[in-house]
Automatic annotation (TrEMBL):
One Pfam entry name: Ank_2
InterPro entries xref list: Ankyrin_rpt, Ankyrin_rpt-contain_sf
PANTHER family reported in the protein's UniProt record: NO MECHANORECEPTOR POTENTIAL C, ISOFORM D-RELATED (PTHR24121), NO MECHANORECEPTOR POTENTIAL C, ISOFORM H (PTHR24121:SF23)
Organism of derivation: Grifola frondosa (Maitake)
Protein name per the record: Ankyrin repeat-containing protein P16F5.05c
């Protein structure tokens, strides 16, 4: 059976189906045109099928699409350089963000570091919209070490000493925290940890 090539109207309908999470219509598109046609579908703003399902929180559609699309589509940027993960963060869709980052064939936690045209990562977008739950999850799973190649030796503090951690957000603000002291850890955004 030979598959036909989708018209611009077919692609537009596919993107609308993804936007509204209509898995049945997405399946019909694939039956007609094959899964490879999913990879090239873009709207006028450069948004892909994954941008549409991620931005609108459609987990069932995402679960259906992820094994069918090219893994490179997870890090595909639209005209504003935002990835599907940026859209999930902008709209506070934790389950979607987790599925995108955890997809075995995808880029993993490196997705979090991709910056859009505004200079913000997905973590930065989560912070920008006040989505604390998502920002917390991004920080928990992301690679926070700049030289994360295993060359640095882990130094274990002596008993009673704390480990000072600095985390910089997308706006350049630095939060410092001391972990492991006998006193409770404290946070500071402009000076050394308070004890």
């Amino acid at each position: 059976m030979s598959l036909s090539i989708p018209s611009s109207e077919d692609l537009e309908e596919l993107l609308l189906s993804c936007r509204y999470g209509d898995v049945e219509d997405i399946q019909q598109f694939i039956d007609r045109f094959g899964p490879d046609a999913l990879n090239s579908a873009r709207d006028d703003g450069g948004n892909s099928v994954l941008h549409m399902v991620a931005g609108n929180g459609h987990t069932e559609a995402l679960d259906y699409l992820l094994p069918l699309v090219s893994p490179s589509l997870l890090s595909a940027q639209n005209d504003a350089k935002s990835t599907p993960l940026h859209w999930a963060a902008l709209n506070s869709h934790l389950a979607i963000a987790q599925k995108l980052v955890r997809f075995p064939s995808g880029p993993g936690v490196d997705l979090i570091d991709i910056k859009n045209a505004a200079g913000r990562s997905s973590l930065g977008e989560a912070e920008n919209v006040g989505w604390d739950e998502g920002a917390k999850w991004f920080v928990e799973v992301m690679n926070l070490e700049e030289g994360a190649n295993g060359e640095e030796e882990l130094q274990v503090p002596e008993s009673g000493e704390g480990i000072e951690v600095e985390i910089q957000d997308a706006d350049g603000q630095v939060a410092k925290m001391t972990i492991g002291q006998k006193n409770s850890p404290s946070l500071s955004s402009d000076g050394p940890p308070q004890t």
